[in-house]
Amino acid sequence: MTRTARTFLALLLLLCGSNASAQEISFTASVDRRAIAAGDQVKLTVSLTNSQERFTPPDLGGMVVIGGPFENSSFNYINGRLSSSVSKTWVITATAPGKYTIGAAKVRVGGGMIQTDPITIEVTKGTAPPAEQELARAQRTDPNLFVTISLSKNKAYVGEQVVATYYLYNRYAALEIAKFELPKLNGFWSEEIDVPDNGWSEQVVNGIGYRVAVLKRQLLLPQRSGKLRVEPMELTCLVNRSFFNRGSSIDIKSNAVDFTAIALPPNAPADFNGAVGELEMTVLADRTSLRTNEAVELSVKLSGRSNLKLLDAPKLDFPSDLENYDPKVVDKINVTSGGMTGSREFQYTLIPRHEGRYELGTMKFSYFDTRSGAYRSLESQPLVLDVAPGEGGPTAQIPRSTKSDVVALGEDIRYIRNGDLELRPNGTFLFGSLSWIAGMGTPAIAFLAFLFLQRKRERERGDVQGTRRRKADRTARQHLRTAEQALRQGAGGTFHTSLSKALHGYLSDKFSLGVAEVTHDQLRSRLSTLKDGAQLTEQCIALLAACDMARFAPIEDKPKQQMYEEAVQLIQRIERSTNS
């Protein structure tokens, strides 16, 4: 820069300073409108003229910033007079109706303090639909981070499907979920729905933009009529964490949702067993012509959109000469955000013991149709089995020799028998001997043993919780194998989902809990009775939290291999403690 240019710039700055000091300094705050509806936007502008001092922004009185501040500076030189102006503009909104007062902005000039006048904004109630009104209520708890529970419907019949979705609304740049507690579901049967890892989506609520994630989805089936309630979900999140910042911990709590379960109409059909939804029935036999002692498979298939996993086998009356066994259940059921659909098939094995014509008649099944609000009965075509005589088997005729006189085959000298004649001492009899007692007692002992085993098997069948506990380790190993395969393939999302299912499924089966009841308090209560219960509890909670963090947050707390090994060791330690 030349000496002449530097001299000119110094004179200009000197002139600017003298003009600014000589001219009047003004400090104002203004808005583009003073009356809005909830969710509408207002522009707030604070301007400082003829001063270069920094000013303190005003308190917004509960209103939320959705944009800004946007700064603007200008210099004017007119008729030898130089003036300057600095302004900041914010775009703000209100999430609820009421009166909001924007406080005074302040600036220190010279030895004094000047400030703007307060501004009052009148906010009226918006015209948002009910769903957005629920969001607005949740938004008022914390405009930057909140969680909501949304039901696909707030009123349904007992047994009708309802989908619960848990949404997280976030405005922070960095977010981690430290822990979360699923709500208590009293009066509901629940099934977890797999949520694809689609990341964040964008949504605007009351004029404020959010990143939105689906934390979890559940299929709910009300089990009793009346007023039910889905309790709030609780989350602890770590926000704005970075390499140089430990971040801040925020506890948030969702809304509670009230639900009305409508009782099913009275006078249900005699064969109604609780099926609710939209169903179709197909009855097929693999053959209708067979021989005695040959097996025929009868299939009763129920398909559609219904509470399929809660359906019991229909009660069928078979002829007494038709031997039948408990049906085999084959499920092809999908649980998605659209509900539970697919089919449940009951396969009966029938064995006719005598030849003849067996008329099985028609098969009937009744269910409650949610579309029409009435009971409906499904009826199959009549089924007839033609049974021909079989070859051999228990009912085949056995040829018997006819009675006749003894015929002498030859006449000759009979030789004297020598060697061991297998004679017994005179006066000894089989009756009362050790062999007789053993022969007579063995059938009775075998029969008692059969009765004991049969009753033990019946008790095990009736002990659903005991069966779950015994199979908990086997079910967990299946999910762990899936997690191990995903680990080898490098599929992080599938690995953490499978590992979380393995842990939740094992703990719920082992301690007879629902999946939604596997909470920190329940784990402390159930594991406290075991050896090293406190250590097991903390390891469980930490491992579940690590899985959830990896599923819902962009940061993995532990390496995948370490998490897998800790899960296997944890399950083995719990098994040893419970079996010791």
CATH fold assignment of the largest domain: Immunoglobulin-like
Number of helices: 8
Look at the structure and give the CATH class of the largest domain. Answer: Mainly Beta
Major sheet size, sense and barrel closure: 7 strands, mixed
**CATH architect. name of the largest domain:** Sandwich
Low-confidence stretches: 4-22, 394-407
Mean pLDDT across residues: 80
Shape verdict? elongated
Helicity level:
25-40%
- Could you say how many structural domains there are in total? 4
Topology, number of strands: 31
Q: How far is the N terminus from the C terminus?
A: 89 Å
User: Strand content of the residues, in percent?
Assistant: 35-45%
Indicate the structural class: alpha+beta
Radius of gyration: 41 Å
